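dumping this here so i dont lose it again. seq + smiles for adenosine-5'-triphosphate
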Amino acid sequence: MLANGPVLEKVLPPGIRVDNLTLRFDAHTIFESLSFEIRGGEFVALLGSSGVGKSSLLKIIGGLAKATSGTVIGTDGLPIQNRIAYMGQQDLLFPWLNVFENVTLGARLRREKIDKAWAEHLLERVGLSTRHKTLPSALSGGMRQRAAIARTLYERRPIVLMDEPFSALDAITRSMVQDLAAELLEGRTVLLITHDPMEACRLGHHLMVLSGHPAKLGTPITVAGKPPRSPDDPELQKSQGELLRLFVENAR
Ligand SMILES: Nc1ncnc2c1ncn2[C@@H]1O[C@H](COP(=O)(O)OP(=O)(O)OP(=O)(O)O)[C@@H](O)[C@H]1O
């Protein structure tokens, strides 16, 4: 703080408050009375076996699907749907738009001026600087995913929801893009679905595991230290061990 100068306060984004959320498809209850809170500015990784209900939960939080009952609201008491950037499992790139046009699509739809420098910076950071004019059909699966990540980051929303965003990337690119996400999403409220315990422990402040039928959330695991953690960080390894033990217990 500068003496007699302005106090530079960091404005925290809103967190997410989920209260008594229940989801049923016919007689099948996916989860029941799920309640939890993600504090503003925290990066939470959500894990759990396939089909347990992770994507459904993320879509409900993002306002893309309806819960049977329960509420989702910002920790500031206001709705969050218009403050979210959402990246789903499918990259949803528009096939007739090139990479640059896809990344800046949100601005186009809102009829805003396009921040060309920001889009170019992101495309460079995800390794697509020579692909601005390429159509999605001419990209590999990993490239498409990187374009979708750039599009999500372009939005600069206070809350970011991501469903397995790095799954199609090779190990080296994945590590590079994880570093980029940790850097650019620092200070935002993030909920990331991943099947990769290492990824969760590299990036998350807290880890939540959804398990059982109907699914419940266990006590969150807190990972000490600042993301992105190096793979040989003892805190990462400790949390990864804790997570794997939990998976084994849940499978019994
Ligand atoms: N629209 C729907 N109608 C009926 N059942 C559905 C619908 N959407 C999801 N389900 C069911 O809800 C359950 C949870 O699905 P969901 O996609 O949320 O799981 P997940 O944990 O994200 O799985 P994965 O890790 O494989 O992506 C599954 O049994 C799925 O078949």
